Amino acid sequence: VPAVFMVTDGVHGRLGKRFERAYGYPFWFVRYVGLWKIIIAICNFVHGGAAVPLGQCMLAALMGGAVYTHVAAERRPLNALPALFVWASSVAVQALRGAPAGRTAAIALLLAAVGYMGGQEVHFMGP
Q1: Using an 8 Å Cβ cutoff, are 87 and 64 in contact?
Q2: How far apart are CA 85 and CA 96, in angstroms?
Q3: Which DSSP state fits 74?
Q4: Residue by residue, what is the 3-state secondary structure of 26-44?
Q5: What's the rounded Cα separation, in Å, for the pair 30 and 116?
Q6: pLDDT (tens digit per residue) in 101-117
Q7: DSSP alpha helices (H): ranges in 1-127?
Q8: Tens digit of pLDDT for each residue in 82-94?
Q9: For position 1, what pLDDT does the model report?
């Protein structure tokens, strides 16, 4: 789902209701996910790539939340595979830019765990 459509959910209200019904998330949550995605995109393309590590770390946390959504909220673990591949790409992007792969993977794993727990906390705020 395009991030702009998620951020503007306050206008049309389609995604918030869908996230509420399908995953049990609060209706307002989808707007913040969209905003997070927009910030990730900006980080990846500003200042000649200087903010790419920040964007990729944010992506790792987002994918942790996506894994929670598919494994725990949706109860369809196989649907989490794309999120795991995107998480792995966030590690690969940084490694290809010269960051130590082991350290980068460890940090990304920690951030994914934070994202997973964040998804759990937001899920508990749902209806």
Answers
A1: yes
A2: 16
A3: S
A4: CCCHHHHHHHHHHHHHHHH
A5: 16
A6: 999 999 999 999 999 99
A7: 3-7, 9-12, 14-23, 29-45, 52-68, 81-96, 101-124
A8: 999 999 999 999 9
A9: 55
